[in-house]
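Hi all, posting the design record for the shared folder.

TITLE: backbone redesign
STEP: 1 of 1
STRUCTURE INPUT:
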Protein backbone atom coordinates (compact mmCIF):
# COMPACT_ATOMS: atom_id res chain seq x y z
CA UNK A 1 0.00 0.00 0.00
CA UNK A 2 1.34 3.45 -0.84
CA UNK A 3 2.06 6.03 1.82
CA UNK A 4 0.30 9.30 1.12
CA UNK A 5 1.52 12.82 1.70
CA UNK A 6 -0.03 16.17 0.93
CA UNK A 7 1.52 17.75 -2.15
CA UNK A 8 2.07 21.46 -2.72
CA UNK A 9 1.05 21.66 -6.37
CA UNK A 10 2.39 23.96 -9.08
CA UNK A 11 0.73 26.57 -11.30
CA UNK A 12 2.26 29.49 -13.28
CA UNK A 13 4.27 29.85 -10.11
CA UNK A 14 4.36 27.13 -7.50
CA UNK A 15 0.97 27.27 -5.85
CA UNK A 16 -0.77 25.17 -3.25
CA UNK A 17 -4.31 23.87 -3.49
CA UNK A 18 -4.06 21.52 -0.54
CA UNK A 19 -6.13 23.78 1.68
CA UNK A 20 -8.92 24.58 -0.76
CA UNK A 21 -12.41 24.88 0.80
CA UNK A 22 -13.76 21.62 2.13
CA UNK A 23 -15.06 19.41 -0.65
CA UNK A 24 -18.83 18.85 -0.23
CA UNK A 25 -20.79 15.62 -0.56
CA UNK A 26 -20.85 13.87 -3.95
CA UNK A 27 -17.36 15.11 -4.80
CA UNK A 28 -15.18 13.48 -7.43
CA UNK A 29 -11.68 12.14 -7.72
CA UNK A 30 -9.34 11.85 -10.69
CA UNK A 31 -6.77 9.07 -10.22
CA UNK A 32 -3.68 8.36 -12.31
CA UNK A 33 -0.11 7.13 -11.97
CA UNK A 34 2.79 9.23 -13.23
CA UNK A 35 6.58 8.94 -13.36
CA UNK A 36 8.04 10.45 -10.19
CA UNK A 37 10.28 12.78 -12.19
CA UNK A 38 7.24 14.10 -14.11
CA UNK A 39 4.98 14.70 -11.10
CA UNK A 40 5.56 18.47 -11.09
CA UNK A 41 4.58 18.74 -14.75
CA UNK A 42 1.32 16.87 -14.18
CA UNK A 43 0.54 18.93 -11.04
CA UNK A 44 1.05 22.08 -13.09
CA UNK A 45 -1.17 20.81 -15.89
CA UNK A 46 -3.99 19.74 -13.55
CA UNK A 47 -3.89 22.83 -11.31
CA UNK A 48 -6.41 24.81 -13.46
CA UNK A 49 -9.10 22.34 -12.35
CA UNK A 50 -8.95 24.20 -9.04
CA UNK A 51 -9.14 21.12 -6.88
CA UNK A 52 -7.10 19.44 -4.19
CA UNK A 53 -4.02 17.66 -5.53
CA UNK A 54 -2.58 14.79 -3.50
CA UNK A 55 0.61 13.12 -4.67
CA UNK A 56 1.67 9.75 -3.33
CA UNK A 57 5.14 8.69 -2.31
CA UNK A 58 6.71 6.06 -4.53
CA UNK A 59 7.79 3.08 -2.45
CA UNK A 60 9.29 1.15 -5.32
CA UNK A 61 10.26 2.05 -8.85
CA UNK A 62 9.72 5.48 -10.29
CA UNK A 63 5.92 5.60 -10.61
CA UNK A 64 3.74 7.29 -8.04
CA UNK A 65 -0.02 7.83 -7.67
CA UNK A 66 -1.55 11.26 -8.17
CA UNK A 67 -5.13 12.18 -7.29
CA UNK A 68 -7.20 15.33 -7.78
CA UNK A 69 -10.30 15.92 -5.59
CA UNK A 70 -13.05 18.12 -7.05
CA UNK A 71 -16.44 19.39 -5.94
CA UNK A 72 -18.02 18.80 -9.36
CA UNK A 73 -17.57 16.13 -11.98
CA UNK A 74 -15.10 17.40 -14.59
CA UNK A 75 -15.56 16.85 -18.30
CA UNK A 76 -13.52 13.81 -19.27
CA UNK A 77 -12.39 15.46 -22.49
CA UNK A 78 -11.03 18.45 -20.53
CA UNK A 79 -9.17 16.23 -18.07
CA UNK A 80 -7.66 14.24 -20.93
CA UNK A 81 -6.45 17.43 -22.58
CA UNK A 82 -4.77 18.62 -19.37
CA UNK A 83 -3.12 15.27 -18.79
CA UNK A 84 -1.86 15.23 -22.37
CA UNK A 85 -0.43 18.71 -21.84
CA UNK A 86 1.39 17.53 -18.72
CA UNK A 87 2.71 14.50 -20.54
CA UNK A 88 3.96 16.66 -23.41
CA UNK A 89 5.69 19.04 -20.99
CA UNK A 90 7.43 16.12 -19.28
CA UNK A 91 8.10 14.27 -22.55
CA UNK A 92 6.41 11.09 -21.30
CA UNK A 93 3.40 9.10 -22.57
CA UNK A 94 0.00 10.29 -21.36
CA UNK A 95 -1.16 7.94 -18.57
CA UNK A 96 -4.61 6.43 -18.24
CA UNK A 97 -6.90 8.00 -15.63
CA UNK A 98 -10.13 7.26 -13.77
CA UNK A 99 -12.83 9.66 -12.58
CA UNK A 100 -15.01 8.35 -9.75
CA UNK A 101 -17.54 9.72 -7.23
CA UNK A 102 -16.68 9.90 -3.52
CA UNK A 103 -18.76 9.51 -0.34
CA UNK A 104 -19.65 12.44 1.92
CA UNK A 105 -16.26 13.00 3.59
CA UNK A 106 -14.31 16.22 4.11
CA UNK A 107 -11.21 15.00 2.26
CA UNK A 108 -9.27 18.18 2.89
CA UNK A 109 -9.77 17.95 6.65
CA UNK A 110 -8.70 14.32 6.53
CA UNK A 111 -5.56 15.12 4.55
CA UNK A 112 -4.64 18.06 6.79
CA UNK A 113 -4.31 15.65 9.70
CA UNK A 114 -1.26 14.25 7.92
CA UNK A 115 0.47 17.66 7.79
CA UNK A 116 2.91 17.71 10.73
CA UNK A 117 4.73 20.74 12.05
CA UNK A 118 7.88 21.68 10.15
CA UNK A 119 11.24 22.58 11.69
CA UNK A 120 13.54 24.35 9.23
CA UNK A 121 16.60 25.94 10.77
CA UNK A 122 15.45 28.57 13.23
CA UNK A 123 11.84 28.40 12.09
CA UNK A 124 8.98 26.22 13.34
CA UNK A 125 5.83 26.15 11.21
CA UNK A 126 2.58 24.55 12.26
CA UNK A 127 -1.12 24.58 11.54
CA UNK A 128 -3.82 24.97 14.19
CA UNK A 129 -4.24 21.18 14.31
CA UNK A 130 -0.74 20.81 15.81
CA UNK A 131 -0.83 21.28 19.58
CA UNK A 132 1.95 21.92 22.06
CA UNK A 133 4.61 24.59 22.54
CA UNK A 134 7.26 25.28 19.88
CA UNK A 135 10.84 24.05 20.40
CA UNK A 136 12.89 26.28 22.65
CA UNK A 137 14.63 29.08 20.80
CA UNK A 138 12.66 28.63 17.58
CA UNK A 139 10.79 31.31 15.66
CA UNK A 140 7.22 30.03 15.39
CA UNK A 141 4.98 30.73 12.42
CA UNK A 142 1.40 29.56 12.22
CA UNK A 143 0.41 28.81 8.64
CA UNK A 144 -2.71 26.89 7.69
CA UNK A 145 -2.96 24.91 4.47
CA UNK A 146 -4.68 27.38 2.15
CA UNK A 147 -5.33 28.31 -1.45
CA UNK A 148 -1.85 29.81 -1.76
CA UNK A 149 1.57 28.20 -1.79
CA UNK A 150 3.65 27.85 1.35
CA UNK A 151 3.08 25.75 4.46
CA UNK A 152 6.73 24.79 4.74
CA UNK A 153 6.20 21.17 3.71
CA UNK A 154 7.48 21.58 0.17
CA UNK A 155 11.23 21.20 -0.25
CA UNK A 156 11.53 24.60 -1.95
CA UNK A 157 9.91 26.40 1.01
CA UNK A 158 12.01 24.52 3.55
CA UNK A 159 15.12 25.27 1.53
CA UNK A 160 14.35 28.99 1.66
CA UNK A 161 13.76 28.84 5.42
CA UNK A 162 17.09 27.07 5.90
CA UNK A 163 18.80 29.76 3.82
CA UNK A 164 17.10 32.48 5.87
CA UNK A 165 18.36 30.78 9.02
CA UNK A 166 21.99 31.00 7.89
CA UNK A 167 24.26 33.61 9.50
CA UNK A 168 24.16 36.93 7.69
CA UNK A 169 27.51 38.29 8.81
CA UNK A 170 27.59 41.84 10.06
CA UNK A 171 25.29 43.32 7.44
CA UNK A 172 21.83 44.06 8.89
CA UNK A 173 18.62 43.51 6.95
CA UNK A 174 16.71 46.78 7.09
CA UNK A 175 14.37 46.29 4.14
CA UNK A 176 13.35 43.06 2.38
CA UNK A 177 11.26 41.81 -0.53
CA UNK A 178 9.35 38.53 -0.92
CA UNK A 179 8.72 38.09 -4.65
CA UNK A 180 5.81 35.73 -5.39
CA UNK A 181 4.88 35.53 -1.72
CA UNK A 182 2.08 32.91 -1.78
CA UNK A 183 0.95 32.51 1.85
CA UNK A 184 3.57 35.06 2.90
CA UNK A 185 5.56 32.50 4.87
CA UNK A 186 8.98 33.81 3.75
CA UNK A 187 7.98 37.44 4.34
CA UNK A 188 6.83 36.53 7.84
CA UNK A 189 9.99 34.55 8.51
CA UNK A 190 12.12 37.53 7.48
CA UNK A 191 10.05 39.90 9.61
CA UNK A 192 10.30 37.60 12.62
CA UNK A 193 14.05 37.14 12.33
CA UNK A 194 15.17 40.67 11.52
CA UNK A 195 12.17 42.73 12.74
CA UNK A 196 12.38 44.76 9.53
CA UNK A 197 9.76 45.92 7.02
CA UNK A 198 9.08 43.41 4.24
CA UNK A 199 7.26 44.04 0.98
CA UNK A 200 5.44 40.88 -0.16
CA UNK A 201 4.28 40.79 -3.79
CA UNK A 202 2.13 38.29 -5.67
CA UNK A 203 0.17 38.47 -8.93
CA UNK A 204 -2.59 36.21 -7.57
CA UNK A 205 -5.33 38.04 -5.61
CA UNK A 206 -6.08 34.98 -3.49
CA UNK A 207 -2.44 34.75 -2.43
CA UNK A 208 -2.53 38.43 -1.48
CA UNK A 209 -5.63 37.84 0.66
CA UNK A 210 -4.15 34.78 2.38
CA UNK A 211 -0.78 36.45 3.00
CA UNK A 212 -2.41 39.49 4.60
CA UNK A 213 -4.50 37.25 6.87
CA UNK A 214 -1.43 35.23 7.84
CA UNK A 215 0.60 38.33 8.64
CA UNK A 216 -2.17 39.52 10.96
CA UNK A 217 -2.49 36.07 12.56
CA UNK A 218 1.24 35.97 13.26
CA UNK A 219 1.44 39.51 14.64
CA UNK A 220 3.66 40.93 11.89
CA UNK A 221 1.07 42.91 9.91
CA UNK A 222 2.83 46.13 10.91
CA UNK A 223 6.03 44.88 9.26
CA UNK A 224 4.72 42.89 6.27
CA UNK A 225 3.02 44.85 3.50
CA UNK A 226 1.33 42.63 0.92
CA UNK A 227 0.54 44.03 -2.53
CA UNK A 228 -0.65 42.60 -5.82
CA UNK A 229 1.76 43.03 -8.69
CA UNK A 230 3.37 41.32 -11.66
CA UNK A 231 7.08 40.83 -11.15
CA UNK A 232 9.11 43.94 -10.48
CA UNK A 233 6.74 46.30 -12.27
CA UNK A 234 4.78 47.49 -9.21
CA UNK A 235 5.50 51.14 -8.44
CA UNK A 236 5.72 50.52 -4.70
CA UNK A 237 8.54 48.08 -5.35
CA UNK A 238 10.63 50.70 -7.09
CA UNK A 239 9.85 53.28 -4.44
CA UNK A 240 11.13 51.10 -1.60
CA UNK A 241 14.23 49.75 -3.38
CA UNK A 242 17.00 48.87 -2.85
CA UNK A 243 16.47 45.81 -0.65
CA UNK A 244 19.00 44.17 1.63
CA UNK A 245 17.32 40.81 1.09
CA UNK A 246 15.17 39.45 -1.75
CA UNK A 247 13.48 36.04 -1.50
CA UNK A 248 11.83 34.48 -4.53
CA UNK A 249 10.35 30.98 -4.38
CA UNK A 250 8.75 30.65 -7.81
CA UNK A 251 9.99 28.64 -10.82
CA UNK A 252 13.26 28.39 -12.75
CA UNK A 253 12.17 30.21 -15.92
CA UNK A 254 10.81 33.36 -14.24
CA UNK A 255 13.74 33.41 -11.81
CA UNK A 256 16.16 33.44 -14.74
CA UNK A 257 14.11 36.03 -16.61
CA UNK A 258 14.05 38.39 -13.60
CA UNK A 259 17.81 38.31 -12.91
CA UNK A 260 18.33 41.83 -14.25
CA UNK A 261 15.45 43.23 -12.20
CA UNK A 262 16.67 41.45 -9.08
CA UNK A 263 20.15 42.90 -9.50
CA UNK A 264 18.69 46.36 -10.03
CA UNK A 265 16.60 46.19 -6.85
CA UNK A 266 19.13 44.44 -4.59
CA UNK A 267 21.42 46.67 -2.54
CA UNK A 268 25.20 46.22 -2.88
CA UNK A 269 26.16 43.47 -0.45
CA UNK A 270 22.54 42.31 -0.29
CA UNK A 271 21.39 38.68 -0.25
CA UNK A 272 19.07 36.84 -2.63
CA UNK A 273 17.35 33.54 -1.77
CA UNK A 274 16.07 31.77 -4.89
CA UNK A 275 14.07 28.55 -5.01
CA UNK A 276 11.31 26.71 -6.80
CA UNK A 277 13.85 25.16 -9.14
CA UNK A 278 14.79 21.55 -9.65
CA UNK A 279 18.40 20.53 -9.00
CA UNK A 280 19.09 20.14 -12.72
CA UNK A 281 17.84 23.71 -13.33
CA UNK A 282 20.48 25.37 -11.15
CA UNK A 283 22.69 26.40 -14.05
CA UNK A 284 19.69 27.91 -15.85
CA UNK A 285 19.01 30.16 -12.86
CA UNK A 286 22.58 30.79 -11.75
CA UNK A 287 24.03 31.87 -15.09
CA UNK A 288 22.09 35.13 -15.60
CA UNK A 289 22.61 36.13 -11.95
CA UNK A 290 26.35 35.47 -12.08
CA UNK A 291 26.49 37.51 -15.28
CA UNK A 292 25.06 40.44 -13.31
CA UNK A 293 27.79 40.19 -10.70
CA UNK A 294 26.07 38.18 -7.98
CA UNK A 295 28.11 35.48 -6.26
CA UNK A 296 26.89 32.12 -5.04
CA UNK A 297 27.26 31.69 -1.28
CA UNK A 298 25.43 28.43 -0.67
CA UNK A 299 23.41 25.69 -2.33
CA UNK A 300 20.76 23.73 -0.44
CA UNK A 301 19.34 20.58 -1.97
CA UNK A 302 16.30 18.82 -0.54
CA UNK A 303 15.12 15.91 -2.63
CA UNK A 304 14.86 17.00 -6.26
CA UNK A 305 14.68 20.70 -5.35
CA UNK A 306 17.43 23.27 -4.96
CA UNK A 307 17.69 26.62 -3.15
CA UNK A 308 20.39 29.16 -4.00
CA UNK A 309 21.77 31.83 -1.68
CA UNK A 310 23.55 34.61 -3.54
CA UNK A 311 25.12 37.92 -2.59
CA UNK A 312 25.51 41.03 -4.70
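Okay, here is what came back for every position:
SEQUENCE:
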Amino acid sequence: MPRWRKSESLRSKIRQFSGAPAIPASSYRISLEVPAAAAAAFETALAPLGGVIVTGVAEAGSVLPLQVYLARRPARRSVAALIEAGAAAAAVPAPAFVIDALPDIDWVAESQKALPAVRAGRFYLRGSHVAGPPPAGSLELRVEAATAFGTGHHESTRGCLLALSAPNGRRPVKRALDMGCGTGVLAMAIARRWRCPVLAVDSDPESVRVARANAAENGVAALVRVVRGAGYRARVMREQAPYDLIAANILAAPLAAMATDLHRHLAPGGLAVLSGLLAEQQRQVLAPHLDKGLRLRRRIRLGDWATLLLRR
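COMMENT: The longest strand covers residues 266-278.
Let me know if anyone wants the other runs.
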